[in-house]
TrEMBL record, chains A, B:
A Pfam family this chain is assigned to: TetR_N
The keyword DNA-binding is annotated on this UniProt entry: yes
Keywords: DNA-binding, Transcription, Transcription regulation
Lineage: Bacteria, Bacillati, Actinomycetota, Actinomycetes, Micromonosporales
Gene Ontology terms, MF aspect: DNA-binding transcription factor activity; transcription cis-regulatory region binding
The protein's name: TetR family transcriptional regulator
DNA sequence: CTCCCATATCTAGCAGCGCTAGCAAAAGGA
DNA sequence: TCCTTTTGCTAGCGCTGCTAGATATGGGAG
């Protein structure tokens, strides 16, 4: 019976290989370059193998996105907990969010632009997503006024997300990034 | 020589037909359904005709997006100028922005998610875009503090954009929309 | 009125896409 | 050693954006 276990291990390893190849290819040449044929060639298997692991290409991208959510949450946590004082913690978390979106644009794209069917309600997926949201909330909690903390968190998140996507789309002046970030936080420190 | 003019007129009319067909098809079945073949069939011409008007499918989508920017700017202006008082004007403009994104999601998608090569610097395109930005700025001007008006406008825009895209992606609780909008504006009224 | 040429438009096809049916090969169990 | 199940492959379908080359159309000159 140990044979089944070995097979299952090899299978999971290959799944990791697929997700890793998709991420590498996307980060190197953009998501348009991630085709099932190139992916298959990269992992040295034929195309149909991909479909024995994932329902389709979207599911592979979603798997990459989930990786991204986990990393984002981890980096938010590190930034928040290693800052001195509530204001600094909030600034650090916001800065970490911006840094993540800037340095991993392709990952960010998979997380927020492409992965449409990666919602809150699903059983497994959104653990990392909600964890990231939770980090922002904890950064805001010490500064919370009398209004609902969740609402504040959502608005902060939206502000950060909007800044990053508009900047990336060339809609905002690139040089004003720090000032915008500071102005956004100004609305939450009070 | 009037023949050339008539031909040019017919040509522009057909171009309008293409853009209109693309928009209708997108609004009816989503952007994935907008293929060059279906577009050609809709306007009752063959596929290559499309390429005598636009460089490619992206350019057609960009033309639809430009239409969207013009409409958004007009609606922002109406909302802003028909409100009584600065606070109400800002709230009206923000509400109009949200209403636009909610009721014309496909158009909004073309404007902000797809049209990548629709930047600020181009000569013709962004007139409508900057006009919309200008409307938000004018809504903020009466409430401006001592910090830069452009920065405030960019942050407000980012907040609105972030709220709408996150909501549409199923990342925010749908029922909290009004509270989030109010909380966002709270950061600009003060 | 006829012919010519330029313009306008179409037919047909290329390379690539996501995805899958059906066959071949490998490997575990009797 | 043979059988059966699992595993992976080859080949192909219908679609995509886009284009080369052939064909039809229609205004201007003789």
């Amino acid at each position: 019976m140990a044979i089944r276990e070995r097979r299952e291990r090899e299978r999971q390893e290959r799944e990791r290989l697929i997700v890793g190849a998709a991420r590498e290819l996307a980060e190197a040449e953009g998501w348009d370059a991630v085709t099932t044929r190139r992916l298959a060639e990269q992992i040295e298997y034929s195309q149909p193998v991909l479909y024995s692991h994932f329902k389709g290409k979207d599911a592979i991208m979603a798997a990459v996105a989930v990786e991204g959510f986990a990393e984002l949450a981890a980096e938010l946590r590190t930034a928040r907990t290693s800052a001195a004082g509530p204001q600094a913690a909030l600034a650090a978390a916001a800065g970490a969010y911006a840094h993540f979106a800037e340095t991993r644009p392709v990952l960010y794209e998979a997380m927020f632009t492409n992965a449409v069917d990666l919602t809150f309600a699903s059983p497994e997926t959104p653990a990392a997503l909600q964890e990231g949201f939770g980090e922002l909330r904890e950064a805001l909690r010490p500064l919370a006024g009398d209004d609902d903390l969740d609402v504040r968190t959502e608005v902060l998140w939206a502000g950060l997300h909007g800044l990053m996507t508009l900047t990336r789309g060339g809609r905002l002046r690139p040089e004003g990034h720090q000032r915008r970030l500071a102005r956004l936080l100004q609305g939450f420190n009070a």
